[in-house]
């Protein structure tokens, strides 16, 4: 098996190490020369270029979204030349960005026009660290993997999903789910981006400096993802700005209800607000455990 | 050693089981007859009453704040009669409420007027479950314990803190810190109450129902404490309403800045907001690890 990787950050580097540990040949590309040199010591066989692309079964775009699209624009023609969607010949190209509408709209179009296979993906794993130095072969072990296939007829869609599943399964993902770019971005604005914004905003209270000695577990959980890569997240969030803005507005509205109850000294109202959140949380947990 | 406990919920019940497992004699009181019966099978020796109070070294008030103060009003006279602050004779009474100003103001007064020893405490442990059935002897193992002594001369204060530390240390707390009721309530509004409000409000987004299949670890962390005891938390939060309302307002203001940057399509501003939170979080983590 041969795997090509564009961008050797935490995600791309972890894919490289994971496939290498499975015995695959890995070709890769990174704009940073030191990263490139480090990766070629024991992980990457050779640069990903027009010579190595044709031997790849899977090409993983793991740079920032814009850089991934630029690579795809530049290589759409060669990818089309070595592929035949009718016979499943040629590599499957996937991206790994945390937002899907912005990337998939253009990538689906390039794949359709040039005749190669592309599936959007979002491997839901990460750490607060970034870069190849922190990449780990087991980063994706047990993690959820979201697949975002193009709109096409059912038979071709199933074949495509089956091929990408077969290529990705050895990495050890905990689950696979399939969704549309729009649904993905709506959900991710809530489960991931809003969580990072809230955590990042939480520590800005003037009281944050004063809590040493008795911070609770709840505080640690709430602020765990306050530490993040600002450039990467700003790009992801801006690509999903409408959904995320709505989620922030919705949360602000919900928070304000508690504040009003506190200011009014209305304990019954506060208890009802807390009971409502408790009820929703229990219902969600029940659904999740019976899913 | 003899320990008296008022209220056999999660906290009182866990103190009862912890001291019993250390070989202490435990007297206790709960308004619920089934809890009382269950506790007397293997944990509690006999009810805490005028007959058993004089033999106690430590009396732990672990009911809701108002109920604790009522018990203290009713027993202030007998506690004074068996105590001598000058010779450290008589039990030390502690409460365990999550807010300290409301309870300590009255309890310090009762202790001073009647001549018995009282120290406010806040054991920072808990689970999302409540009640004696979930009480565990190891609930406090490694947990931070906050002590809130009365304003008095330094020598008496040190003696009091030393006595209460000696009585509580065998339980296995991870750390002890000493603060004032006002400072405690200001910090706890931020580290604990705000975390519960945010978590409880977070799940109220209409999107919460749609995320199954790909929720991230950040979502699980953010919503862990959404499940809570609404009656208890409404009482705690109402007793700390001013501080908590300020923290909610401060968080709303911080969140709104991200929303405005998103709506304006201002990626640089969004990146700066994220970088600011990241910087503060790293500074806090550095302080905590060097403390």
UniProtKB/TrEMBL annotation, chains A, B:
It comes from the Bacteria. Residues 234-261 form a coiled coil. Keywords: Coiled coil, Oxidoreductase. InterPro entries: 6-PGluconate_DH-like_C_sf (IPR008927), NAD(P)-bd_dom_sf (IPR036291), PDH_C (IPR046825), PDH_N (IPR046826), Preph/Arog_dehydrog (IPR050812), Prephen_DH (IPR003099). One of its GO terms (molecular function) is NAD+ binding. GO terms for biological process: tyrosine biosynthetic process. The keyword Phosphoprotein does not apply. Residues 1-291 form the Prephenate/arogenate dehydrogenase domain. Belongs to the prephenate/arogenate dehydrogenase family. This is Prephenate dehydrogenase. It comes from Enorma massiliensis.
């Amino acid at each position: 098996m041969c795997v090509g990787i564009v961008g050797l950050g935490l995600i791309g580097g972890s894919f490289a190490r994971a496939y290498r540990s499975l015995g695959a040949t890995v070709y890769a590309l990174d704009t940073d020369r030191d990263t490139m040199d480090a990766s070629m010591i024991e992980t990457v066989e050779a640069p990903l270029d027009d010579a190595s692309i044709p031997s790849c079964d899977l090409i993983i775009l793991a740079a920032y979204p814009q850089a991934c699209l630029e690579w795809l624009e530049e290589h759409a023609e060669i990818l089309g030349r070595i592929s035949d969607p009718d016979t499943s010949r040629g590599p499957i190209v996937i991206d790994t960005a945390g937002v899907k509408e912005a990337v998939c709209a253009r990538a689906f179009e390039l794949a359709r026009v040039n005749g190669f296979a592309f599936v959007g993906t979002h491997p839901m794993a990460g750490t607060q660290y970034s870069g190849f130095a922190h990449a780990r072969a087991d980063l994706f072990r047990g993690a959820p993997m979201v697949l975002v296939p193009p709109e096409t007829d059912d038979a071709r869609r199933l074949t495509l999903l089956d091929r990408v599943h077969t290529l990705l399964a050895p990495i050890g993902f905990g689950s696979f789910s399939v969704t549309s770019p729009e649904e993905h971005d709506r959900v991710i604005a809530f489960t991931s981006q809003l969580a990072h914004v809230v955590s990042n905003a939480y520590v800005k209270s003037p009281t944050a400096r004063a809590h040493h000695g008795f911070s609770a577990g709840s505080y640690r959980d709430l602020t765990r993802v306050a530490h993040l890569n600002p450039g990467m997240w700003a790009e992801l969030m801006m690509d999903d700005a409408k959904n995320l803005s709505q989620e922030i507005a919705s949360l602000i509205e919900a928070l304000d209800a508690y504040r009003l109850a506190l200011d009014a000294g209305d304990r019954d109202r506060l208890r009802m607000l807390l009971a409502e959140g408790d009820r929703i949380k229990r219902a969600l947990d029940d659904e999740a455990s019976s899913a």
